[in-house]
């Protein structure tokens, strides 16, 4: 029974939401599309047989047959789209970053409370099989007491700037829009960040991008765990996974899909094997199904507005550390 209507704003990554229409076990169905590129909008509507399409997001959020709005617009437009969808009483899935400032994060938390809606940030890393397996091993105590952790997002952004010019035309903030991936991934394991210290540099590898694009982030969590994030976007694509995770405990260590347990004689490296996936399509499908269950069971999504707000607060503290050259406490939002 397909009876939970979805409207999608932004048909870049947002096109991944359309996969749910072919999922017979899901009650979600994409009923509306919005994009400022009229040609892409018409083509996507035709290919996927979606009844409603518009270039005006305000028309989409007012449609009575739509109960959930997916926001996949450029980062700097998220707040206006969140505001419109919330005021229309729609539940919201918003791709990362949730918003691009602490003030916008606080406003998002307020809107969710005022309108009694459910909100989820589409952080794909929490739905990546290798990272889900690492979280299960950690939660079950197989890795023991955490001693250190690290995560990275390392990606040559030049081809991305070619495909999505808004990132250099509007100068996307790569702490909010890029480092949010590994920051959120580590927060999933260890909770709130207490303090950070950051080094940053501007690579100059692409003259279209004028701001700092390489970051080394040192984190101390409220529970005492120390960690580091490598968020590097101004470089030649390196021979390592674009997104990575390492959790090092007193009983075992896991780095991406490789596991070592201290209790196994000889400490052999065990490789965890998962089905090959390309792009973020399956991760988007997984978090849509998770959000669907949250709607049906009236429970909070894994990455709700409060979780999203603390990622934004952490990114803001990173900028303060860069500008002051000092360690900075992460403020609480909401």
Provide keyphrases for this structure:
single chain, 334 residues, alpha/beta, Rossmann fold, Dihydrodipicolinate Reductase, domain 2, 9-stranded mixed sheet, 10 helices, 24% strand
Number of strands: 15
CATH class label of the largest domain: Alpha Beta
Number of helices: 10
What CATH architecture of the largest domain would you give? 2-Layer Sandwich
Distance between the termini: 37 Å
Q: How would you sum up the global shape?
A: globular
Give the overall pLDDT as a whole number. Answer: 97
Spans of 5+ residues with little confidence (pLDDT < 50)? none
CATH topology of the largest domain: Dihydrodipicolinate Reductase, domain 2
| Strand percent estimate | 15-25%
In the sheet with the most strands, the strands line up as 14-13-12-11-7-10-9-8-15
Q: Helical proportion?
A: 25-40%
CATH superfamily of the largest domain: Dihydrodipicolinate Reductase, domain 2
Reported for the largest beta sheet, the result is: 9 strands, mixed
Q: Which series of helices and strands comes N to C? A: EEHEHEHEHEHEHHHEEEEEEEHHE
Number of domains: 2
Report the C-alpha radius of gyration, rounded: 20 Å
Instruction: Indicate the structural class.
Output: alpha/beta
Describe this structure in words.
The chain has 334 residues and is α/β, with parallel strands linked by helices. The protein has two domains: 4-125 and 282-303, NAD(P)-binding Rossmann-like Domain (Rossmann fold, 3-Layer(aba) Sandwich); 128-274 and 311-329, Dihydrodipicolinate Reductase, domain 2 (2-Layer Sandwich), CATH 3.30.360.10. It has ten helices and 15 strands. The strands form two sheets. The protein has a nine-stranded mixed β-sheet, covered by helices on one side. A six-stranded parallel β-sheet has the order 3-2-1-4-5-6, sandwiched between helices. Helix 3 (78-87) runs parallel beside helix 4 (102-115), helix 4 (102-115) packs antiparallel against helix 10 (305-324) and helix 8 packs across helix 10. The two termini are 37 Å apart. The mean pLDDT is 97.
């Amino acid at each position: 029974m397909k009876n939970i209507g979805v409207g999608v704003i932004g048909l870049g990554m947002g096109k991944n939401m359309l996969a749910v229409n072919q999922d017979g076990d899901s009650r979600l169905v994409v009923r509306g599309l919005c994009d400022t590129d009229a040609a892409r909008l018409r083509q996507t509507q035709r290919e996927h047989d979606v009844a409603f399409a518009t270039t005006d997001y305000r028309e989409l959020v007012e449609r009575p047959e739509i109960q959930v709005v997916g926001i996949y617009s450029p980062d700097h437009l998220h707040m206006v789209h969140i505001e419109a969808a919330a005021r229309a009483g729609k539940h919201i899935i918003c791709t990362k970053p949730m918003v691009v400032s602490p003030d916008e994060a606080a406003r998002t938390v307020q809107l969710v409370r005022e309108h009694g809606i459910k909100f989820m940030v589409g952080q794909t890393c929490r739905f990546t099989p290798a990272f889900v397996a690492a979280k299960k091993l950690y939660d079950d105590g197989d890795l023991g007491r955490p001693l250190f952790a690290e995560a990275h997002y390392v990606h040559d952004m030049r081809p991305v700037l070619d495909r999505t010019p808004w990132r250099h035309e509007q100068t996307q903030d790569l702490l909010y829009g890029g480092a949010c991936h590994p920051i959120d991934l580590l927060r999933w394991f260890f909770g709130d960040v207490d303090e950070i210290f950051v080094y940053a540099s501007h690579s100059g590898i692409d003259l279209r991008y004028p701001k700092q694009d390489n970051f080394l982030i040192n984190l101390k969590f409220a529970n005492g765990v120390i960690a580091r994030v490598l968020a590097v976007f101004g470089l030649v694509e390196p021979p390592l996974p674009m997104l990575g995770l390492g959790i090092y405990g007193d009983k075992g260590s896991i780095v991406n899909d490789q596991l070592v347990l201290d209790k196994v004689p000889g400490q052999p490296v065990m490789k965890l094997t998962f089905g090959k996936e390309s792009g973020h399509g399956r991760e988007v499908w997984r978090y849509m199904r998770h959000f669907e269950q949250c709607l049906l069971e009236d429970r909070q999504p894994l990455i709700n507005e409060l979780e999203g707000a603390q990622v934004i607060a952490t990114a803001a503290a990173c900028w303060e550390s860069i500008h002051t050259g000092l360690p900075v406490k992460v403020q609480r939002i909401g």
